[in-house]
Amino acid sequence: MSNRFSLPLAVLAIFEAGLLLAAFAVMHAWAYPAESLIAAPSGEGSAALGVAGIVVVCGLILLMMFSLGLYSWHLAHGYLDLLLRIVAAFVLAFVGYSAIVYVFDVIRVLPETLGLAMVAAVPAVFTGRVAFLRIANMAHLKRRVLVIGSGTNAARLQELENGGHASRFVVFAFIKLEPVDIEVDRQRVISLPNDLTNFCYEHGIEEIVMALEDRRGNLPLDALIRSRLNGMKLSDYQTFSERATGRVDIDALSPNWFLYSEGFRASRLHRTAKRGFDLAASLGLLAFALPLMLLTALAIRLESPGPVFYRQERGGQNGRPFVLIKFRSMRNDAEAAGAPQWAQVGDPRVTRVGSFIRKTRIDELPQLINVVKGEMSFVGPRPERPYFEEQLAAQIPFYRERNSVKPGITGWAQLNYPYGASVEDAKQKLQYDLFYIKHFTILFDLAIVLQTMRVILWSEGAR
Fold first, then answer.
1. Is 236 found in the same domain as 150?
2. CA pair distance 50, 107, nearest whole angstrom
3. Which residues, in sequence order, are bridge partners of residue 330?
4. pLDDT tens sequence across 293-327
């Protein structure tokens, strides 16, 4: 993703980091006016608070806020949801801090300072967030672009432009060059300027986006080349759309995108790094979650007859099938009729224990074994059943390309789109899967793993 689109969020994170540090410093000074803030803790009963303790607590709060999706443009579904996420982030940070103190017995922060600072910081962060949302929606703070085209692709950009604070650009004008029906705001449709470069500079345009339906014989090459040589940024529709939405527009996708787009990091170094990340994350989580998995197995066995684990064939990397392992969340006769079925909202086949472990994603934990075996990755497209894969590949272009990487327990699509139970849902999720495959990095994987917390706590997409 472009820094142009994420810069305001980075500024927000820096501002909130300063706000949290200030809250801890002020609350400490108010509660213990005689103590030094910089002094290291001198004993069990000391009120002194070291800088290291402040940094750790504030860092945990910021990390939890990131994990709950508070540093994405789709910040929340309303002010109440925003407040709940902020409060949840502070609670989780407190739990994490308590665990660190309990295990390592270091960098203690006295309860009085911790409690006072958190109580003061929550309304401050919430107020700052509300102000940020309103400021971020101001048009003059968004990237100004000029769109070449006035048809379907241009209309899609106009729709993205109207996405509120999540939209980080405004279209100054649409240039009509094609003999197609105008599908955008006619008041902003103009002819090609005589001097495209000066026109862009005069109107503060930062980027030109090519959104023509058919480029053959229509592009004003001389004008575009002069603009490019004079420092103007040029992008095609697909590249700009990816940057603005975090997904690939399947409806405008062509084979050339796979051939000429940058990305698709699949070198031996990247594969080795990803495998190391998978092993470390899966083995660590298996060790941490083992007591929970044992309790889950007992609950399943007590509630309904049948095996604890549910084994099912899924499509793996390059189409190689493997047996996926999950905790059983449905009745043992869930597919007695014979034909595979997608899970539906309020599916009557789901047991009471099954409903809980689905919402909390506990049913996915046995897949860590698949990761250790190398059949899956920790992060990647969700594996689909071969029965459904055949149907979807016949109806959705480029669907099989998602199998170019190992399937994952969590993924970019799971963070951005709810559970899919139709061809249209599969198409929407494919757009995020292809974006992930193209833009994969270890840091991207780590960000997805951290943000999976919000999917679990908010039960997003569970069925």
1. yes
2. 7
3. 350
4. 999 999 999 988 889 999 999 999 998 999 999 99
- pTM of the predicted structure, to 2 decimals: 0.87
Sort residue 98 into left (φ over 0), alpha (ψ -120 to 50) or beta. alpha
Whether the Cβ atoms of residue 365 and residue 327 lie closer than 8 Å to each other: yes
Q: Are 189 and 69 found together in one domain?
A: no
User: What order do you get walking across the sheet with 189-190 strand by strand?
Assistant: 189-190, 169-175, 143-148, 207-210, 233-236
Amino acid 381: pLDDT: 95
CB distance 206 to 234 below 8 Å: no
Structure tokens at 9: 């969020």
Diameter over CA atoms, the chain: 79
Least confident span in 175-179, 186-190, 405-409:
175-179
pLDDT on residue 341: 64
358 and 446 part of one domain = yes
Domain count, the chain: 3
**Residue 256 within any structural domain of the chain:** no
Q: Which tens digits make up the pLDDT trace of 1-29?
A: 444 457 788 889 999 999 998 888 787 77
Is 321 among the domain residues? yes
- Residue 60 burial (CB count, 10 A): 20
* Beta carbons within 8 Å of 375's beta carbon, 6+ residues apart: 316, 322, 406
Q: What is the CATH number of the domain that holds 237?
A: 3.40.50.20
User: CB atoms < 10 A from the CB of 68, how many?
Assistant: 24
What angle in degrees, to the nearest 10, is found between the helix axes of 111-136 and 51-67? 50
Considering the domain architecture, whether residues 200 and 347 belong to the same structural domain is answered as no
Q: Which of 117, 136, 155 is the last residue of a domain?
A: 136
Residues 6+ apart with CB under 8 A from 433: 381, 402, 411, 412, 413
Strands (E), 328-461: 377-379, 408-410
Residues 132 and 147 in one domain: no
Helix (H, G, I), strand (E, B) or coil at 53: helix
Amino acid 263 reads G
The CA angle 83-289-110, to the nearest 5 degrees, is 50
Domain that holds residue 72: 3-136
Q: Does one domain contain both 122 and 161?
A: no
Please give the Cα distance from 182 to 158 (Å, whole number).
Answer: 12
- Conformation bin of residue 398: beta by default, left when phi > 0, alpha when psi is -120 to 50: left
Considering the domain architecture, whether residues 443 and 389 belong to the same structural domain is answered as yes
Q: Judge whether residue 343 has pLDDT over 70.
A: no
Q: Render the burial of 216-253: b for 16+ CB within 10 Å, e for the rest.
A: eeeeeeebbeebeeeebbebbbbbbbbbbbbbbbeebb
